[in-house]
Design brief:
5 strands; DNA polymerase, domain 1; 275 residues; 11 helices; 3-stranded antiparallel β-sheet; 5% strand; globular; two-stranded antiparallel sheet; mainly alpha
Length: 275
């Protein structure tokens, strides 16, 4: 069995199995691995494969009151991280990967480095979070100083910067804004250091907060980013500005939020409201 059977199987998954596009792609990747590394046979053209459709779903958006309820049930750095997701429109991975030098308190800006699509962008730093962030960073700096005095306090740097600047991993500006509570140990070298928080920590905290708030929406950490964009558009900000803040390459990606504004479908007022 080879190309014709693979074509038939992938088509069967889409037509009869009605699987998602990601499931079909996973099956194709597994078959390519099987033939290349196990059977050691080069595959040719599969022909026309019926592709599973990738559904276009509207994002889950929280109202301002719902955001307030969820945030009120978070504490400490969990509250601060979730507030940045909503207040700055950050993705979860972007928030966790923030370093001290990425925060500009004077200009009230956050530099997002190597975001989705390997792009840098600048977004807002909410004024309401300036003092909580300063207090949080004071605690982080104290922990970093203790790590340095213990002979550790170094973090991983992107690409080959650690080789180019050997002392940079121990500098304050390169430290994570949200470091993990415990130090990791390299079993090969015995070195200790801190990585940033694991994403599951905030995900579990937000999931619990949503349940405790009694919300029926299937809200996640990413819902804060969706809510950020929707509330900005609802306030009247230009869609191009929101596009830049979110880091979308195409404005059509940002336009999906115009469909979930709190004014009905596509922002049109229902005639039933005038009866």
């Amino acid at each position: 069995m080879a190309e014709p059977e693979i074509n038939a199987f992938l088509t069967h998954l889409a037509v009869d199995g009605r699987v998602s596009a990601s499931t079909q792609n996973q099956a194709l990747a597994a078959l390519l691995f099987l033939y290349k590394y196990v059977i050691e046979r080069r595959l040719g053209d599969f022909g026309e494969v019926v592709r599973a459709r990738r559904p276009r779903r509207l994002p889950i958006v929280l109202t301002r009151d719902e955001v307030r309820q969820v945030l009120a049930r978070l504490r400490g750095d969990r509250w601060l991280m979730a507030s940045l997701l909503y207040g700055s429109g950050l993705r979860l991975a972007e928030c966790l990967a923030l370093r001290v030098q990425d925060l500009d308190f004077e200009r009230r800006e956050i530099l997002v480095r190597d975001g989705k699509g390997s792009k840098d962008r600048v977004t807002m730093l909410p004024g309401s979070l300036l003092e909580p962030l300063r207090a949080h960073l004071a605690q982080v700096r104290a922990v970093h100083a203790a790590d340095l005095s213990a002979g550790w306090g170094r973090v991983a740097l992107p690409e080959a910067l650690a080789r180019k600047y050997p002392n940079a991993p121990a500098e304050w500006r390169w430290q994570w804004v949200f470091p993990q509570e415990g130090r990791w140990t390299n079993p090969r070298t015995g070195e200790q250091g801190r990585h940033h928080h694991d994403d599951s920590i905030l995900q579990k905290a937000v999931r619990r907060a949503v349940i405790d708030a009694g919300l029926v929406k299937r809200a996640t950490c990413h819902s804060f980013r969706h809510s950020f964009a929707t509330h900005l558009l609802d306030t009247g900000y230009d869609i191009r500005t929101v596009q830049e803040l979110l880091g979308h390459r195409d404005v059509r990606t940002t336009m999906i939020y115009t469909h979930v504004l709190q004014r009905g479908g596509r922002g049109v007022k229902s005639p039933a409201d005038d009866l």
